[in-house]
Amino acid sequence: MTNSVPLHALTLEGDPKLPALVLLHGRGSDERDLFPLGRMIAPDATIVSVRAPFPAAPWGYGPGYAWYRYLGGTTPEAESFEWGQQSLAAFLESLPDRLGYAPGHVILGGFSQGGTTALGHALRHPDTLRGVMVLSGFLPEHPSVHATPATLATTPIFWGHGTMDPAIPHELAAAGQQALREGGARLTAHSYEGMGHTIGSAEVSDLKAWVTTLAP
């Protein structure tokens, strides 16, 4: 990759016959944040929780890390988004050698910025993932991201979002989901009444059931 940095991750190896679960945290957090979620929704699978490439503090996002600089609405800063995407792609390309997994044997997902980043990767690299999880994220507006039949035909997508999310309003999720449906996505969407910018117990249950459908 021309614009990428090595990414650090926590890994807990599991049953190699199951898809590996690769998780991306939200802005201001780190690789420890979603690690417990992985074991909750896929108890026997390999869990890989990845640290984003950028320090979050210079952008005012807290003490952790970020996948891109956020400009507002559904718009990431183009340059940092591209760096984050290329860094993630290089990391995922290394997984078969590191863990012995075949390409396409990965479920990629994340929360907030991590969910947006996961969705962006899936649309930039069609047919390379077993599934994608978008948890309180949005469909990013970036020249490299296209929600079309060519990019959406085969990859199942789970999208969960709270109706009272103050950070990424639910209407942004609804608009993104509509664009995916119009592109022919295999989309499973859940709206959680009264939930804010978080991952609730109902969403965890729905995720666990959805992940089970992707097992070989």
Features of the shown structure:
about 30% helix, seven-stranded mixed beta sheet, about 220 residues, Rossmann fold, alpha/beta
Explain what the structure shows:
This protein is α/β, with parallel strands linked by helices and 216 residues long. It has a single domain, classed as Rossmann fold. Helices cover 32% and strands 22% of the residues. It has six helices and eleven strands. The protein has helices spanning 35-41, 78-99, 113-124, 149-152, 170-182, 201-212; strands at residues 9-12, 20-24, 47-50, 54-55, 65-66, 70-72, 75-76, 106-111, 131-135, 156-162, 186-192. The strands form three sheets. The chain has a seven-stranded mixed sheet with strand order 1-3-2-8-9-10-11, sandwiched between helices. Strands 4-5 form a two-stranded antiparallel sheet. Helix 5 links the parallel strand 10 (156-162) and strand 11. The longest helix has 22 residues, at 78-99. It is globular, with a radius of gyration of 16 Å. The two termini are 31 Å apart. The model has no long low-confidence stretch (mean pLDDT 94).
